[in-house]
Protein backbone atom coordinates (compact mmCIF):
# COMPACT_ATOMS: atom_id res chain seq x y z
CA UNK A 1 0.00 0.00 0.00
CA UNK A 2 1.10 3.56 -0.55
CA UNK A 3 1.15 4.30 3.20
CA UNK A 4 3.42 1.31 3.90
CA UNK A 5 6.90 2.38 2.75
CA UNK A 6 9.68 -0.13 2.39
CA UNK A 7 12.06 -0.46 5.34
CA UNK A 8 15.34 -2.36 5.56
CA UNK A 9 14.98 -6.02 6.48
CA UNK A 10 15.70 -6.30 10.24
CA UNK A 11 18.97 -8.00 11.09
CA UNK A 12 18.79 -8.02 14.89
CA UNK A 13 15.41 -8.98 16.33
CA UNK A 14 14.40 -9.39 19.98
CA UNK A 15 11.29 -11.34 20.99
CA UNK A 16 10.05 -10.31 24.45
CA UNK A 17 7.32 -12.28 26.22
CA UNK A 18 5.29 -11.88 29.40
CA UNK A 19 5.91 -15.04 31.46
CA UNK A 20 2.65 -14.44 33.35
CA UNK A 21 0.77 -15.47 30.18
CA UNK A 22 0.72 -19.26 30.21
CA UNK A 23 1.48 -19.87 26.53
CA UNK A 24 3.56 -16.74 25.84
CA UNK A 25 6.92 -18.51 25.84
CA UNK A 26 5.63 -21.27 23.55
CA UNK A 27 4.26 -18.71 21.06
CA UNK A 28 7.57 -16.85 21.26
CA UNK A 29 9.44 -20.01 20.24
CA UNK A 30 6.91 -20.54 17.43
CA UNK A 31 7.47 -17.01 16.10
CA UNK A 32 11.24 -17.41 16.39
CA UNK A 33 11.04 -20.61 14.33
CA UNK A 34 8.89 -18.76 11.79
CA UNK A 35 11.40 -15.90 11.42
CA UNK A 36 14.66 -17.82 11.17
CA UNK A 37 14.19 -19.56 7.79
CA UNK A 38 12.78 -16.36 6.27
CA UNK A 39 15.68 -14.22 7.52
CA UNK A 40 18.56 -16.72 7.69
CA UNK A 41 21.21 -14.01 8.11
CA UNK A 42 19.37 -12.29 10.96
CA UNK A 43 19.91 -12.80 14.68
CA UNK A 44 16.80 -13.59 16.75
CA UNK A 45 16.96 -13.60 20.55
CA UNK A 46 14.23 -14.37 23.10
CA UNK A 47 13.84 -12.57 26.44
CA UNK A 48 11.33 -12.42 29.27
CA UNK A 49 10.03 -8.89 29.84
CA UNK A 50 11.89 -8.83 33.18
CA UNK A 51 15.27 -9.46 31.51
CA UNK A 52 14.76 -7.28 28.44
CA UNK A 53 15.54 -3.77 29.83
CA UNK A 54 19.08 -4.85 30.70
CA UNK A 55 19.48 -6.61 27.35
CA UNK A 56 18.41 -3.58 25.29
CA UNK A 57 20.92 -1.42 27.13
CA UNK A 58 23.71 -3.90 26.37
CA UNK A 59 23.13 -4.67 22.68
CA UNK A 60 21.49 -3.06 19.65
CA UNK A 61 18.30 -4.31 18.00
CA UNK A 62 16.58 -3.24 14.77
CA UNK A 63 13.15 -4.46 15.82
CA UNK A 64 11.49 -5.81 18.95
CA UNK A 65 8.42 -8.05 19.04
CA UNK A 66 6.45 -7.79 22.30
CA UNK A 67 4.18 -10.71 23.21
CA UNK A 68 1.57 -10.10 25.91
CA UNK A 69 -1.12 -7.57 26.68
CA UNK A 70 -1.01 -3.79 26.39
CA UNK A 71 0.95 -3.65 29.65
CA UNK A 72 3.73 -5.73 28.14
CA UNK A 73 3.79 -3.54 25.04
CA UNK A 74 4.01 -0.42 27.23
CA UNK A 75 6.93 -1.80 29.26
CA UNK A 76 8.81 -2.91 26.16
CA UNK A 77 8.17 0.41 24.39
CA UNK A 78 9.49 2.27 27.43
CA UNK A 79 12.71 0.29 27.27
CA UNK A 80 13.03 0.88 23.51
CA UNK A 81 12.16 4.60 23.42
CA UNK A 82 15.62 5.92 24.35
CA UNK A 83 17.19 3.85 21.57
CA UNK A 84 14.45 4.66 19.03
CA UNK A 85 13.74 0.97 18.36
CA UNK A 86 10.36 0.17 16.75
CA UNK A 87 8.14 -2.36 18.53
CA UNK A 88 5.70 -4.85 17.01
CA UNK A 89 2.96 -5.95 19.42
CA UNK A 90 1.40 -9.42 19.48
CA UNK A 91 -1.74 -9.40 21.62
CA UNK A 92 -1.95 -12.26 24.11
CA UNK A 93 -4.13 -10.29 26.53
CA UNK A 94 -7.70 -9.01 26.50
CA UNK A 95 -8.41 -5.76 24.67
CA UNK A 96 -5.08 -5.23 22.91
CA UNK A 97 -5.64 -1.61 21.86
CA UNK A 98 -1.96 -1.15 21.00
CA UNK A 99 -0.96 -4.47 19.43
CA UNK A 100 -0.73 -5.04 15.68
CA UNK A 101 -0.90 -8.86 15.60
CA UNK A 102 -3.29 -11.27 17.31
CA UNK A 103 -2.61 -14.58 19.02
CA UNK A 104 -4.33 -16.72 16.36
CA UNK A 105 -3.66 -14.59 13.28
CA UNK A 106 -0.09 -13.32 13.07
CA UNK A 107 1.64 -15.16 10.21
CA UNK A 108 0.65 -13.09 7.16
CA UNK A 109 1.23 -9.68 8.76
CA UNK A 110 4.48 -10.81 10.35
CA UNK A 111 5.69 -11.98 6.94
CA UNK A 112 4.78 -8.55 5.57
CA UNK A 113 6.79 -6.85 8.34
CA UNK A 114 9.79 -9.13 7.80
CA UNK A 115 9.75 -8.04 4.15
CA UNK A 116 9.99 -4.41 5.27
CA UNK A 117 6.42 -3.54 4.25
CA UNK A 118 5.22 -1.55 7.23
CA UNK A 119 5.05 1.96 8.64
CA UNK A 120 6.09 3.32 12.02
CA UNK A 121 3.54 5.11 14.16
CA UNK A 122 5.06 7.73 16.47
CA UNK A 123 3.32 7.91 19.84
CA UNK A 124 3.75 10.98 22.02
CA UNK A 125 5.15 10.53 25.54
CA UNK A 126 5.01 12.78 28.60
CA UNK A 127 7.82 13.76 30.96
CA UNK A 128 6.81 13.78 34.64
CA UNK A 129 8.77 15.36 37.50
CA UNK A 130 7.98 15.24 41.22
CA UNK A 131 9.32 18.03 43.44
CA UNK A 132 9.34 18.48 47.21
CA UNK A 133 10.52 21.94 48.14
CA UNK A 134 13.70 22.56 46.14
CA UNK A 135 14.41 18.84 45.66
CA UNK A 136 13.55 16.76 42.61
CA UNK A 137 12.39 13.37 43.92
CA UNK A 138 12.12 11.63 40.57
CA UNK A 139 11.53 11.97 36.84
CA UNK A 140 9.75 9.55 34.51
CA UNK A 141 8.61 9.32 30.88
CA UNK A 142 5.16 7.84 30.29
CA UNK A 143 3.29 6.58 27.25
CA UNK A 144 -0.25 6.45 28.66
CA UNK A 145 -0.64 8.76 31.64
CA UNK A 146 0.37 9.91 35.06
CA UNK A 147 -2.22 10.21 37.80
CA UNK A 148 -2.15 11.95 41.17
CA UNK A 149 -4.64 10.10 43.35
CA UNK A 150 -5.81 9.69 46.91
CA UNK A 151 -4.49 6.44 48.35
CA UNK A 152 -6.85 4.63 50.69
CA UNK A 153 -9.55 6.14 52.87
CA UNK A 154 -12.32 8.41 51.67
CA UNK A 155 -10.71 11.86 51.89
CA UNK A 156 -10.39 13.78 48.65
CA UNK A 157 -7.22 15.54 47.58
CA UNK A 158 -7.07 19.17 46.50
CA UNK A 159 -5.00 19.64 43.35
CA UNK A 160 -4.01 23.21 42.57
CA UNK A 161 -3.46 23.12 38.82
CA UNK A 162 -1.73 25.64 36.56
CA UNK A 163 -1.07 25.65 32.81
CA UNK A 164 2.09 27.41 31.61
CA UNK A 165 2.30 29.22 34.95
CA UNK A 166 -1.29 30.48 34.78
CA UNK A 167 -3.81 29.22 37.37
CA UNK A 168 -6.46 26.89 35.95
CA UNK A 169 -8.41 25.59 38.96
CA UNK A 170 -8.08 23.67 42.20
CA UNK A 171 -9.70 20.27 41.81
CA UNK A 172 -11.31 18.68 44.85
CA UNK A 173 -11.41 15.09 43.65
CA UNK A 174 -10.19 11.54 44.03
CA UNK A 175 -7.45 12.43 41.59
CA UNK A 176 -6.34 14.00 38.32
CA UNK A 177 -5.17 12.13 35.23
CA UNK A 178 -2.78 13.72 32.73
CA UNK A 179 -2.81 11.59 29.59
CA UNK A 180 -1.43 11.35 26.06
CA UNK A 181 -3.60 10.49 23.05
CA UNK A 182 -2.43 6.88 23.58
CA UNK A 183 -3.62 7.07 27.17
CA UNK A 184 -6.99 8.47 26.09
CA UNK A 185 -8.17 4.88 25.52
CA UNK A 186 -6.88 3.67 28.92
CA UNK A 187 -7.59 5.02 32.43
CA UNK A 188 -8.65 8.38 30.99
CA UNK A 189 -11.42 6.71 28.98
CA UNK A 190 -12.71 4.91 32.07
CA UNK A 191 -12.83 8.29 33.84
CA UNK A 192 -15.05 9.75 31.10
CA UNK A 193 -12.43 11.43 28.93
CA UNK A 194 -12.57 11.78 25.13
CA UNK A 195 -10.79 9.50 22.68
CA UNK A 196 -7.95 11.21 20.80
CA UNK A 197 -6.39 9.81 17.60
CA UNK A 198 -2.86 8.52 18.23
CA UNK A 199 -1.13 10.86 15.78
CA UNK A 200 -2.12 13.95 17.80
CA UNK A 201 0.29 15.56 20.26
CA UNK A 202 -2.13 16.90 22.84
CA UNK A 203 -2.16 16.63 26.64
CA UNK A 204 -5.42 15.55 28.25
CA UNK A 205 -6.52 16.53 31.79
CA UNK A 206 -9.31 14.45 33.36
CA UNK A 207 -10.43 14.76 36.98
CA UNK A 208 -11.52 11.59 38.77
CA UNK A 209 -14.76 11.95 40.78
CA UNK A 210 -14.53 15.75 41.17
CA UNK A 211 -16.71 17.32 43.87
CA UNK A 212 -18.07 20.79 43.10
CA UNK A 213 -15.08 21.28 40.80
CA UNK A 214 -14.43 21.51 37.07
CA UNK A 215 -15.65 18.12 35.88
CA UNK A 216 -14.98 18.27 32.13
CA UNK A 217 -11.83 17.01 30.45
CA UNK A 218 -9.50 19.68 29.08
CA UNK A 219 -7.37 19.19 25.96
CA UNK A 220 -4.09 21.12 25.92
CA UNK A 221 -1.72 21.77 23.00
CA UNK A 222 1.69 20.22 22.56
CA UNK A 223 4.22 22.35 24.41
CA UNK A 224 1.96 23.12 27.36
CA UNK A 225 3.32 22.56 30.87
CA UNK A 226 1.01 21.32 33.62
CA UNK A 227 1.84 22.02 37.26
CA UNK A 228 -0.09 20.26 40.03
CA UNK A 229 0.41 21.35 43.66
CA UNK A 230 -0.97 18.73 46.05
CA UNK A 231 -2.90 19.74 49.16
CA UNK A 232 -3.76 16.73 51.29
CA UNK A 233 -3.75 15.47 54.86
CA UNK A 234 -4.36 11.88 53.76
CA UNK A 235 -2.10 9.44 51.86
CA UNK A 236 -1.76 10.20 48.15
CA UNK A 237 0.17 8.63 45.30
CA UNK A 238 1.67 9.51 41.93
CA UNK A 239 1.25 6.69 39.40
CA UNK A 240 3.20 6.70 36.12
CA UNK A 241 1.78 4.32 33.49
CA UNK A 242 0.73 2.09 36.39
CA UNK A 243 4.37 0.97 36.71
CA UNK A 244 5.90 3.50 39.10
CA UNK A 245 4.02 4.31 42.32
CA UNK A 246 5.42 7.18 44.38
CA UNK A 247 4.18 8.58 47.67
CA UNK A 248 2.96 12.17 47.43
CA UNK A 249 2.99 14.47 50.48
CA UNK A 250 1.23 17.73 51.23
CA UNK A 251 2.65 20.60 49.12
CA UNK A 252 4.53 18.32 46.72
CA UNK A 253 4.45 19.50 43.12
CA UNK A 254 4.14 17.40 39.96
CA UNK A 255 5.15 18.97 36.63
CA UNK A 256 4.15 17.39 33.30
CA UNK A 257 5.16 18.35 29.78
CA UNK A 258 5.79 16.67 26.42
CA UNK A 259 8.72 14.27 26.50
CA UNK A 260 11.58 14.38 24.02
CA UNK A 261 11.08 10.62 23.64
CA UNK A 262 8.47 8.86 21.50
CA UNK A 263 7.22 5.31 21.37
CA UNK A 264 7.57 3.75 17.92
CA UNK A 265 4.96 1.12 17.01
CA UNK A 266 5.16 -0.99 13.86
CA UNK A 267 1.98 -1.06 11.76
CA UNK A 268 1.23 -3.40 8.87
CA UNK A 269 -2.39 -2.30 8.49
CA UNK A 270 -3.61 0.90 6.84
CA UNK A 271 -3.94 4.08 8.89
CA UNK A 272 -7.67 3.64 9.41
CA UNK A 273 -7.01 0.71 11.75
CA UNK A 274 -7.46 2.88 14.86
CA UNK A 275 -11.14 3.64 14.22
CA UNK A 276 -11.89 0.01 13.39
CA UNK A 277 -10.22 -1.00 16.67
CA UNK A 278 -12.31 1.49 18.61
CA UNK A 279 -15.56 0.31 17.03
CA UNK A 280 -14.74 -3.35 17.65
CA UNK A 281 -13.40 -3.07 21.19
CA UNK A 282 -15.78 -0.55 22.72
CA UNK A 283 -18.71 -2.75 21.78
CA UNK A 284 -17.35 -5.59 23.90
CA UNK A 285 -15.43 -5.46 27.14
CA UNK A 286 -14.10 -9.03 27.59
CA UNK A 287 -14.10 -8.72 31.37
CA UNK A 288 -17.85 -8.09 31.43
CA UNK A 289 -18.44 -11.51 29.88
CA UNK A 290 -16.32 -13.41 32.40
Beta strand count: 17
Please give the count of helices: 6
| Name given to the CATH homologous superfamily of the largest domain | Probable inorganic polyphosphate/atp-NAD kinase, domain 2
Name the helicity range.
10-25%
Strand arrangement, largest sheet? 7-6-17-14-9-10
What name does the CATH topology of the largest domain carry?
Answer: Tumour Suppressor Smad4
CATH class of the largest domain: Mainly Beta
How many domains make up the 3D coordinates?
2
Which CATH-level-2 architecture of the largest domain?
Sandwich
Termini separation: 39 Å
Low-confidence stretches: none
Order of helices and strands: EHEHEHEEHEEEEEEHEEEEEEH
Mean pLDDT: 93
- How much of the sequence lies in strands comes to 35-45%
Radius of gyration equals 20 Å
Structural class: alpha+beta
Overall form: elongated
The description of the largest β-sheet is: 6 strands, antiparallel
Describe the overall structure.
The chain has six helices and 17 strands. The protein has helices spanning 24-38, 52-58, 70-81, 107-114, 187-190, 273-282; strands at 12-17, 43-48, 63-68, 87-91, 101-102, 119-132, 135-142, 145-150, 157-163, 166-173, 175-179, 203-208, 218-220, 226-231, 236-240, 244-248, 253-267. The protein has a six-stranded antiparallel beta sheet with strand order 7-6-17-14-9-10. A six-stranded antiparallel beta sheet has the order 13-12-11-8-15-16, with no helix packed on it. The protein is α+β, with helices and mostly antiparallel strands and 290 residues long. It folds into two domains: 12-118 and 268-289, Probable inorganic polyphosphate/atp-NAD kinase, domain 1 (Rossmann fold), CATH 3.40.50; 125-260, Sandwich (Tumour Suppressor Smad4).
Amino acid sequence: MSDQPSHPVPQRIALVFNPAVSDAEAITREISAFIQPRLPTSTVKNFSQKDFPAAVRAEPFDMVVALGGDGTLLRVSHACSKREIPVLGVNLGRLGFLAELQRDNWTSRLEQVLAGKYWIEMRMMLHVKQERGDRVLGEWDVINECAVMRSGGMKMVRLETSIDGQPLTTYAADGLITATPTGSTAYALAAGGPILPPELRNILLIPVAPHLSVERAIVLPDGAEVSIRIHTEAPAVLSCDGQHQEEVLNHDRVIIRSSELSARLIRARDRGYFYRNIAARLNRNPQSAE
